[in-house]
């Protein structure tokens, strides 16, 4: 790999390019100079104190810069972002430069103490925290206003001068990772620690959750198979399966919290202090004083945001939900009409006509989902949230509700209005399987194929026929900058969420759903891994301690599934036969059982501790130590004062 | 007040007695000397560095000691316990001795910077943290073993050498407080800040909650009155009342959290760091090493505790619940028998007999409650919890479940098994009103009367006829040490909890309950205030940031009340008349409405933020400042390192 950097190595032997900055081709010379000077400038002068080099491509353009940093600078940055690392005594502690010798694996010449993903995260953090001092505008762009304390990179991004910042892949590391991850056929766990080192905690946690969820579904799948094989129709067996399913889903969600705590403790993010969040790039408002920081920044009244949320977004979402239901009703009418038509005519044409409504509906749903997604993004952006996290939460909530309705409304209608269990089972199976196949295709294999074709063309253009690992740096950067951007784990979690819905909402009608989910997830792991390694640009690592709002989403789904399953069991003819005289007793019994199950779920969620005991003890020990340190400090003052 | 301390003032002019230590009369001279020496010894030598004086009573006994501390010592103690105080710039900050000048109202000669309750809390904390160094036993008591780090005071308490430690009343302050609190008839708020200064946060928060709860019940009471006056029986009016009630109860519990945050922010406890909890006095086990502190202390396996909880306590509680239900069934049988007997005989004797079952049942319930309380305390103590907080939570849970059943089981039976709404209304009214009257009597007036009689006798014995304020210190201590001990706010909250149950569980049947609750609570404030000021020993202040497990208990009750009210409305003849053909539609509608209400409750609890915006901003500012301070520190290292 070294040889390819030869042009750079000549003048700075230990410059290791970590992050790529791509400017617009038309960027003025003046701006380029100012930006690189600011990035390279000393901290004391308000710079980021990073190393920055232009990447000279063959056509002589100079709009791409490589950013790196000295090992010492990275260590200081690790302290600034508050990285937590393992000490020689096996405890996890916040890294500080002065205590660096106490950390495991630290040596002044050991470049691998910080993983590459951590280094890139530090550089991203430092770049984003490069702030305007007394500049009023971006040099060369009088329309791009600055004020003291404004993040320069964010202003450059919003003004289109900066096209993108992305971290570079490390071809050798990637090759190793690919090999252990999906390169060979094997039964076993994913190399989560390696994934975390390469892609960061958010993505590692997603793959961890995917793997855990797959394993957790196995018992359901195993129990579900005989129902299909022997065509069991006994009501007590279905009740047993559903009850097991409901309690199991509570248990797995609680146990996941514990596993997640174990993993993120090992990775250090469980202990990492939340950084103060800067306004997100799209946030705008009148320049005022932030009451928290006392800094000048755009301010937007929270009441106006609330008004926008409750008076515009909420009604709009409700309208969309209503519209989606309306479309569903039209679909059912069409379906009925097609059936009637087929009954009357009994021709080849009429039997073909039977499929038309389903096809139209599937297409319309897909179109609605896409349009709604844009609308949701537009609305959430218009709500003008100050924080990226709050923007994400509002967006997730909007998309989640709509997708839930779109996916499950027809099933609810079939189950609780048409009372047609056979149709329900059939629709459930069709929806689940087709959505799984389509997803895998659209999500990984299609982009992979496109990417591969693009790469070949690129290589042809450059007249070189080397394999991946001996690409020159210029080629590598040019290839990677054209790759698609991975927009976070949202869609991946959404897919799992909907799958969880298919498995648990109507589990007592279709026990085989868990089997399909398990099969899908095994290939999903491979296709998602392929997607991360081959299709998309490397994403920046994001430290995180849990799967956030998705935990709540999954828990809500498991509460809803208690209600649906109880109703389904109550409606089954076998249960109805038990109460031949009184429908009322039946309903009351079902309602009672449902309430008991819900109560049991809450008690279980309450009784199972969120963190395993050893993690609790480790956390308590750290807290105790910091309290003791405080006391020592007090005692020192104490002696001093009393000896006066 | 000063004159009464004359005997002490002669040799130490600024000794202000704050806390009283009472030793057993038989305590050996050797032990007394050792203890006082340890308390007075310098911090550097492992002492508590407090001032301690024997109180010589008239009969020459020397088993009572007064403990105080210099102003300087108290300020250092305030730093140790982590008190949070207001700064001159109106922000709340953790007090440190070195930054003392930045705090509001601080002056080196201003003794009132710390409230008396805070001073007493500091002294209690310092006494409890007085630890054995190399002593193997308590001098004079070879059976009272010590090990390095063992709290001396706790060992003295468990061995019966130390009888009690309690804080002294301040007669003048108390008189002022009594006057503003309940001395004059007035409509207005309680002086919560003064109560907090005198009794500490836990008690002030109880009175704050009591007051808030009373105000919150007023709208329900106002809406409830016309139902009684005009004898409204329209179903839609009842539904409206119940719906309002259910949503209202969610709102008030959420709003309380916000108010509580406002109050505890002002008091500084919202920001106060939780101290590391020592093992509770009764905790025992094999001497081992605490994995958190690394100190030697008794260790008890958590698995054995879990076994005791789940294999002994849980079955026992279930058995008790079953037994309580069984007794209730016997009561209903007796009631029926008495009715039949009366119908047959129609004599004076038989009409008297009608009351017998109720009286017997009331007495039996009271006896069961008391026995169960002892059993619960014994069991929870036997479960051997390491922490006082965990002991309290387990005790509260046990007592709560049993009391809930005992109070409401008969009402549930009448409502949902006998379907007798008239009897339900009647029983509810009787239970509510009699329990309120009995409680107020047994809780405050009876002890007050006993206390007054005792005081008179004491005074007579001492041949003095002075009023409270000019009691000598010796007399004051002798009076106060005989007063009853206030065992915390448990029973007071329990009373409110059960009252909340009476008001909300069957609100649609008896809207007048809220009226009685409001009336009761107004007098309750006065009787509880009287109890605190006159009847009991002054309790130690306990810093707290919320009402803890009671918030959860009240929220659970409000969830249960959704279910009960929906069923009651569903059973009402008016609603039944709406569904003349199909009972099934009725039940389904009721179940649907209930689920919607529950969902609405959860959404509301989720949407209403737990802390008001300004408190959120203040907390965020503090967090931001500490992050910035950390960065400054990093930057300092940064400069230093880069200038190398």
TrEMBL record, chains A, B:
Name recorded for this polypeptide: Anoctamin
Primary gene name: Ano10
Compartment list: Membrane
Domain Anoctamin transmembrane: 195-621
Membrane topology reported for the UniProt record: Multi-pass membrane protein
Organism domain of life: Eukaryota
Membership in a protein family: Belongs to the anoctamin family.
Transmembrane annotation, as ranges: 212-232, 238-256, 309-332, 352-372, 395-416, 496-519, 586-608
Species whose genome carries this gene: Nothoprocta pentlandii
GO cellular component: plasma membrane
Annotated GO MF terms: chloride channel activity
Keywords: Membrane, Transmembrane, Transmembrane helix
Signal sequence interval, chain numbering: none
One Pfam assignment: Anoctamin
Principal cellular location given in the protein's record: membrane
InterPro entries per the UniProt record, alphabetical: Anoctamin (IPR007632), Anoctamin_TM (IPR049452)
